[in-house]
Amino acid sequence: MWQIILKRENEISLSRQLFYAMKDMILEGQIRSGEALPSSRGLAKDMSISRSTVNEAYDMLETEGYIVTHQGAPTRVKEGLYLEKHQKHHEEALFPVITLADKPYKVDFKTGQPDVSLFPRYVWNQMMYKSFEQLSDKDLGYFGTAGYESLRVEISHWLFRKRGLSAKPQDIFITSGTTQALSILVTMLSKAGLPFAVEDPCHRGLLEVIENSGNSILGISVDQEGMKTALLEAHDFSAVYVTPSHQFPLGSILTAERRIELIRLARQKKFYIIEDDYDSEFRYVGASVTPLYSMDKEQVLYTGSFSKTLYPALRIGFVILPPKLHSEWMYLRKHLDVQNPIVEQAALAEFLNQRKLDKYIQQISRMYEKKRKALTTSIYECFGEQCSILGDETGLHLVLKIPGAHFDEFFIEKCQNAGIRVFPIEHYCISKGNHMDQLMLGYGHLKVEEIQKSVSRLYNLIMDTE
Ligand SMILES: Cc1ncc(COP(=O)(O)O)c(C=O)c1O
Fold it and tell me: Which residue has the least CA distance to atom 3 on ligand 1?
């Protein structure tokens, strides 16, 4: 008889195991169309299981239409149920293999990871619990793609307090982070045949969001004054994506002249500017940088995120849109995933209302400032005067520049072999070869005590003594 192995110590009942096994064999043609099945008594005896187990399995097969029974005739497999085995798509190989577990690194300068050790989980948990209790029945339904109203109001107050921005709650749309905001905006703003202009270098994941939606890219190079906006003059494009408050990854702030030039061009050529303000809440030197949005609320679409200020897995961000884009946004969001989960939105509204986020940012900023100091001190101690540090006044990463160094793919491989995770700026570049001597070091997640050792290991590796 068939080679079916049933496991007795299994959470799945024997009858269901038998059903699954027979179903697969029917689909794969090992039990052929029209073939008569053995009697339940015969099969039970053959497999040393009870007859009722076989009967239950046969019932399941019949219910799902794999077999037919006729009074007084043997039970048979239904005709035409063969299904060719799924061949692995060769395209699969084109995509990177995603592993579930993060490889443990001895030294990890990954970016984009805030420190969540001080996050007031207990308070947050209380707010989640209380919010759920207080939500109305209506709130638990399809309450609207724009987002939870109280949260939109609180974000409007928050932006005013923290970023000096005045934005109406009705122009604020809650998203599942900037990544989703960009993905919808790209669909909305794409003009046939025209590329999206982005900073070069640029965040890889966000660049892929634009590319994967079938749009071409025009990389505009960046220097210490941010995107070289004069280079936009000669082109037409669908929209421009920028990080004016803290250029990712180089860290520069877009200067006033370039801001004006960018907005002038946007008005003249009628394109939108997507402003990504992803981590400027953490500013260690000087006053907070005013968002570009404050200069033109019609041409600039502002995106914010709580991924750095709270935690990335929260997946809450927002976009501020002028009224003429509201209905298209709502339409696209509704057909994408309808809305954000409600409880986290309500808890965040309360967190903002009680000024808990303000306090938390003050507290965690002090921690980041210590880490920044430990990192810059260690860098100068190890690398000396030969190096320079860029873009460390804001955010959770900085750029280490070592003139004459050549951080290429061999260097990455060398790092990987030594268990060190660090990203050369070249990794983020569209046109290659201009930033070979720079490394991006993310430090948000590092412990102050481990920073000195991490830098010294990196130094040894670069100097070839590791
Ligand atoms: C440049 C940039 N923009 C936006 C984000 C935030 O993305 P999200 O809100 O989807 O988590 C990040 C996070 O690392 C980032 O580096």
Answer: 278
Instruction: Report the top-level CATH class of 107-114+365-462.
Output: alpha beta
Domain ranges of the chain: 14-77, 107-114+365-462, 121-358
**Taking each helix axis from N to C terminus, what angle separates 342-353 and 356-383, rounded to the nearest 10 degrees?**
90
Amino acid sitting at position 17:
Q
Closest C-alpha to ligand 1, atom 5: 278
d(CA 349, CA 152): 8
Q: What is the mean pLDDT of each run of 10 residues along the chain (466 residues)?
A: 85 92 91 92 92 94 92 90 69 47 82 94 98 95 92 98 95 98 98 97 98 97 97 97 97 96 97 97 92 97 98 98 98 97 97 98 97 97 94 96 92 91 95 96 96 96 76
CATH 3.40.640.10 fits 121-358, yes or no: yes
Please choose from 198, 199, 305, 423 the residue to mutate so as to test ligand 1's pocket, defined by most ligand atoms within 8 A of CB.
305
Structure tokens at 439: 């490394």
- Rounded CA gap, 182 and 141, in Å? 26
Q: What is the DSSP letter of 197?
A: E
Name the strand (E) or helix (H) holding 389.
strand 388-390
pLDDT on residue 104: 82
Which residue in 118, 9, 199 sits closest to 366, CA to CA?
118
Question: 86 CA to middle of ligand 1, Å?
Answer: 37
- Kindly list the protein residues whose Cβ atom lies closer than 6 A to any atom of ligand 1: 112, 177-179, 203, 206, 243, 248, 276, 278, 305, 307, 312, 317
Q: What is the CA radius of gyration of the chain?
A: 29
Q: Looking at domain 14-77, does it have CATH number 3.10.350.10?
A: no
Pocket test for ligand 1, best of 178, 199, 247, 348 (most atoms within 8 A of CB): 178
- Could you tell me if 443 and 372 are in contact, meaning their C-beta atoms sit under 8 angstroms apart? yes
